Fold:
Amino acid sequence: MSIKNVSRILICNLLFLVAYASGQTTLNQSKISGIVADQVTKLPLNYVTVRLKTADGTTLKTMLTLNNGSFLFTGLKPEPYQLTLSALGYEGLEIPAEGRDTLFLQPKENGLKEVSITADRPILRQKAGKIIYDMQADPDSKNTMLLDMMRKIPYLSVDGDQNLLLKGSPDFRVFLNGKPSGMFARDLKSILKSIPASTVQSIEVMTIPSSKYDAEGLAGIINIITIKKLNNEWNGTLNLNARLPDAGTGAGSSFTFKKNKWGMSAMTGGNLNRSPELTGNAFRQTYGTNPTDLFQERNRKPKSESGYLGTELSYEIDTLNLISARFNTNGKHAEDNGFLHSTLSGAQGILQGYELAERTRANSSGLDFSADYQLGFKADKNRMLTLSYSYQNHKNDPFTEALISKVTNYPNRNFRQEQYDHTKENTIQLDFVRPHKILTVEMGVKGIFRDNKADFKVDDDPQNSDHLTYRQQVLSAYNSYQLNWNSWNLQAGLRLEHTSIDADFLSHTANVKQNYTNLFPTIMINKTLKGGNSWNAGFSQRMKRPGINRLNPFVNRLNPDFETTGNPDLRPVVVNSISLGYNSSKKLTFTAGMDYSFLNEADLPVSTFDPVRNITTKTYDNSGELAGLSSFVYLRYPLTSRLDLSMNGRAIYFWMSGEAMGQKIKARLFTYSFNLSSGYNFESGWRTSMNLNLDSRNPTGFQGTTNGMLSSSFNVSKTLIKDKLSFGAGINNPFTKFRTNETITEGPQFYQRDYSQSYFRSFSVNLNYNFGSLKGELKKNKRGIRNNDLSN
Structure:
């Protein structure tokens, strides 16, 4: 069946009907009581979260309704109160605590198929293909950086080198408020370490993105939501933080404003990092007719400064026309001064030796701008047409000077290497959504036009210098639909993408030209069970395109015995994923899932040894095969009204193979990651919390692994001034001062280990201030450009 016929069959209308009902409760001078019931069936509801608030919005008490739907707050002063109700599968409700005895909650519509998992305040929500973690509902977010909070979110983990992983993979995309942002594209770890979690509203983890998203994104998409809710008011957050002795000081802020038809939000921050001297060493053993042993000792003293700014502006012309625009920018300056002592030995003694003092400077910057125009229709407000445009620009220019001394049989001398990468991207997109009864149809077209340039040279030597121009065009069209029938929700779609690549080299006569067309299916089924539990299953086929960091053929000789280079001949790979999940929540929050993914011709790293030059070279090649069977589990349980406990874990078994130096290499590896968190709320706003993290070895490809770790943190915080000001202090890894990061790489004729030291024990302080109030919601386009077709 042709794509055109499929599109015609899928087009029909969907209409959502939303109704709200409210009730009230009984108030006297000493207690507030009531019964919560279903608006439709009139039956009482248990495990409904009821929060008692004062007139200024401060939460005074929280409890869950009993089996008969009743709740009771006692020992109260005679003053006005508010009640907030939230429950699995029901619309939220906030009302004055006075009036009738029965409160009715309206069930959520089947079309949403959303599971709200509630303990005190709902922290986790589940939808088909994604989970939503409410950062503001987690008390630990007030005094923690965003990267540390990621450990607590299902499907996410952080490895020993502080790299964020989604389903155990580093290949995913990060959005800001539903849109791609250039400031996450090149230095994700540094940005996440500098964003206070208090400035983030929620995190969406999309494990099976629908066909409206680009086919790229091996593991999925992480969407960081910073926009707060308000109505003709303003609010914001200011955060100051510091960490010692691996000195890092930072500040972050978010601000949202709405006045009539105008809305604006912004987030900004920066970090200064100064590290004391760190040590490391490397060992390589080679085999064959002339075996050798290489031993290196090194030290380094890195420092960096970084900053970011993100803004969004919207104007609601009328109820049918909305315009919005975004601007994001970030910059970083990094310096690293190091010293290396290297000795190569053989059967006859020392073959080579040298000392190297290196000085590295790197400046990087990025900016992006996007704008959307959304048109509604009078006949059906859920029908929408959106026209979008975006522009991204990123620059990176590392520079290194190396001075070589105390030479023993070593031919090389002082050298200087420079690199300049520049990426520009223009995108235009048109989307249309048409609902009718139980079916919603989405369709759209999109064009991405990229222009990547890379200049590199070593000592002004023409043989070691080149200029790369890498132009890429991606033209795509998609058609997806969502069917809602009773307790069933079906999402399915097709996406067609055509990619053309044209790469030119200044010093090479042969150019790289590639053209390929792919059709990607996606299907997701969700079934809501009795009691609000649900299960889901899905299949997706997606593409992984290599980024400029893997394509650039520049040979980095910063360590003369270990060279790294890209491969401009890399081809994209297609990833197939099958998933199954189950979600349950009463007093216990429980979500679990399994995933099986496999791909051929994977662009995995390949390390080879050159016995003539005694050099190990690392590059990338499409010779790999990769498969992974994954399981994920998240638990959260309120042991008491003050003590909470949560666990987030994953386990993955990898099958990997590839070719190096003409030999086929196979590898099998079982990996796991667990985070255990607990917190206790004392009287008068005091809270203590504990985190324990256990990570296993992780693969670096079919030839190597990095070591695991056991880490811990202990924190105490105090809330002041009616929940607006909070202060926190903590200690990380109090029992271990340093961590040794170990990377092992094996191949035909060689084995090597690399050790690098990092500060593990640290002390932190954090000050967070919230100002303004929250009501309503900031208007933003429901559709727009989401370029998720390149890997991190």
